[in-house]
Structure formats: structure tokens, C-alpha cells
Design goal:
There is one protein chain. This protein is α/β, with parallel strands linked by helices. It has eleven helices and 14 strands. It folds into two domains: 59 residues, DNA polymerase, domain 1 (Orthogonal Bundle); 267 residues, TIM Barrel, CATH 3.20.20. The protein has a ten-stranded mixed sheet, covered by helices on one side. β9, α5 and β10 form a beta-alpha-beta unit.
Length: 348
């Protein structure tokens, strides 16, 4: 008897699903029913698809699987932040975070298992990059946090940020497909303006995003606006120096007319001088932008230490006096290693 190799049904496009049903002697509208269960109702099992006959569900089980994620471990911070250790179908783990504030509930999701970019201040960079996440695995993280928002806070999920493990622009196709499912009326129907993709600054991919006319927001993990300093803490700057990054961001703004957000941590003895602050101001003036000055979250007792309050105030005053919207971002979830830069799969 021939063994049927079961495929991941969420890898099929709607037209492929229609063709499958026709091949099985079924009506093509069944594909729309299944698609709705998968992407609007986030079904994890074919038995949940109650408007399909038992025979149809059995047939789907014979041919397909739904490789949904599982929240393997959940921690809740004193400030309400929730960190999830998410187990993928192949046993690998990534982390995602629910970040509650007075006005928002944000899902911070991962796009890769590990990371290959070796940023010196980031715990995730110490993990070997194992693989890219599939679009459905990214989507599932959002669904899990959406459910936690309703369960623990009785409020809806409002925002999604790609600021978890991995570099989203090195998993470009899957990230865009996930965002399409998250924003589609046939998916989670979240507004594109509520989604932000954060990158270390891969110039050619920023230009590609502009050409692809994406509708979400762009954030750049900058942290220094002098090449020597930035290369010392972010090796990606060797191949994507600030000159090329700046040109790509100018192209982005020319095509998309959307402000860029710069994420910037000020460290003692590294970038806390007036020279560094003035370099950031000059870089910010290239395109309309805003700056988040982010509290540093130590990952060990090493090189990186939070700068003084006076250094942060110096940055804020310089930027704001030159018309750059600047916010100081206090980290959330530090007590459970869920804050920016701390995601490192400690449960594996």
C-alpha cells in the first residue's frame, strides 16, 4: 500500500488548496472553508473544522498536518510582561514576549531560531542560527500572544514588533508572508501601521522593502552613528557602513514617505560622549525620523554598562532641540530576561 507523505497544509496557497479538493472530487469552496479555519480562526486541529463533514476531515488528516507551535514555558514579570518559550514542530525553541502598557499590548516576535549577526551586546547573538522561521510559525506567535492578551488582561492585542530573536530581513520572504496573513481580512485583520519590523540595517534589503511598497513601519537598531564605534559593537556595519545605510534610508523615505525609528542604547565609555551624540543628530537629519533611547539590559558583567542619566539627558536635549522626537524607553520584563537584547532560550 502506498504511503502518503503528509504535507504542512499551511504551506499551500489558496489556489493550491482548491486544486487539491478538485483532485479529490470535492467542491473548490471547501478550500475557502479550510483557509478560514487556518488563518482567521487559527485552528490547530482538523477536528476543529466543524462545518466540514467527518469524511472530509479524515481525508485532510490523511494528506496534511498542521505544524502549530506550542507555548512550552511561560513566565510573567512583576510588571505584567509575559515571556513565552515557544516550541516548534521540530523541537527547536524561540522566544516571544507580550508587553503590556496602559494604552497598548504589543507582541514582540522572533523571526529566526538564533541569530548570525554577532551584535556584542545581545544575548541572542550568542546562539547559533539554526534556521529561519516559517510564515505560519511567526503568525502562531502573534496568535498565542493575542490569546494571552484576552486571557490575562481582557484587552486586545494592538501592536506587533519584529524585535525578538533573529534578523527579520534575513528571512524576508517568510516575514512578509507572515505579515500578509496578520494584516489580511482573511487572516487576523490587523492594520499595517500597527506592525514594526526592526533591522540592524541591511541596506539592500531596506531598498527592496521600499521597492516592494511595504506598508508596515521600519525601525533600525543603530546604537552608534560613527563607523568605527558601530563596527566594534555591530559587525554588520563592516559590510553595511553608515554611508550605505543612510542612502538606503533616504531611498526608503523617498519611496514610502514613512518616518524611520532609530533604536539607540547609550553605554558608558562607548557612545556617551557629545561627539557620538552629534553624529547621531547628523544621521537623524538625513530623513524624517524619531529616536528611542533604550535602557540597556545587561546580559553579563562584561563590557557594556548603562550610561549615566546625565549622558541620556544630553542626548535627549540635543535631539529634541533640533526637532527630533525622542523618547526614553524603560525596559519591561527584566526580571524574567524578557527585555530588549535578553532573549536567549535559557529553558533549553
Amino acid at each position: 500500500m502506498e504511503t502518503i507523505v503528509r504535507r504542512d497544509i499551511r504551506k499551500l496557497k489558496l489556489e493550491e488548496l482548491k486544486a487539491f479538493f478538485v483532485d479529490q472530487g470535492e467542491k473548490p469552496f471547501r478550500a475557502h472553508q479550510v483557509h478560514e479555519w487556518l488563518w482567521q480562526k487559527s485552528a490547530k486541529d482538523f477536528d476543529q473544522m466543524s462545518n466540514l463533514s467527518l469524511e472530509t476531515r479524515l481525508m485532510l488528516k490523511q494528506h496534511f498536518v498542521i505544524n502549530h507551535i506550542q507555548v512550552d514555558h511561560m513566565q510573567q514579570s512583576a510588571d505584567g510582561t509575559i515571556k513565552n518559550a515557544v516550541k516548534l514542530h521540530d523541537g527547536l525553541i524561540v522566544e516571544s514576549v507580550l508587553i503590556p502598557t496602559e494604552k497598548r499590548i504589543t507582541a514582540c516576535v522572533s523571526s529566526q531560531v538564533g541569530c548570525s549577526l554577532d551584535c556584542k551586546f545581545c544575548a541572542t547573538a550568542r546562539l547559533k542560527r539554526m534556521r529561519n522561521l516559517n510564515a505560519d510559525e511567526i503568525y502562531d506567535q502573534v496568535v498565542a500572544i493575542q490569546q494571552q492578551a484576552e486571557l490575562f488582561f481582557n484587552r486586545p492585542l494592538t501592536n506587533v514588533v519584529f524585535m525578538g530573536m533573529g534578523e527579520p530581513l534575513l528571512n524576508y520572504t517568510n516575514v512578509l508572508e507572515a505579515i500578509e496573513k496578520i494584516t489580511s481580512q482573511k487572516g487576523l485583520n490587523m492594520a499595517s501601521k500597527r506592525i514594526t519590523v526592526s533591522t540592524v540595517g541591511i541596506a539592500k534589503m531596506i531598498q527592496k522593502m521600499a521597492d516592494d511598497e511595504v506598508k508596515f513601519n521600519l525601525a533600525v537598531s543603530l546604537h552608534a552613528a560613527l563607523n568605527e564605534t558601530r563596527s566594534s559593537i555591530m559587525p554588520i556595519n563592516d559590510t553595511n557602513p553608515l554611508e550605505e545605510l543612510g542612502e538606503a534610508l533616504e531611498y526608503w523615505y523617498q519611496k514610502r514617505r514613512r518616518k524611520v525609528t532609530y533604536e539607540y542604547v547609550v553605554w558608558k565609555g562607548i557612545n556617551d560622549s557629545p561627539e557620538q551624540a552629534n553624529a547621531l543628530l547628523k544621521f537623524c537629519l538625513r530623513v524624517p525620523s524619531k529616536v528611542n533611547l533604550i535602557e540597556y539590559n545587561p546580559i553579563d558583567a562584561g563590557l557594556f554598562q548603562q550610561a549615566s542619566d546625565s549622558a541620556i539627558a544630553m542626548y535627549q536635549h540635543l535631539l529634541e532641540s533640533n526637532g527630533i522626537v525622542t523618547r526614553i524607553r524603560k525596559s519591561r520584563g527584566k526580571d524574567i530576561d524578557a527585555a530588549c537584547g535578553q532573549l536567549a532560550n535559557k529553558f533549553i
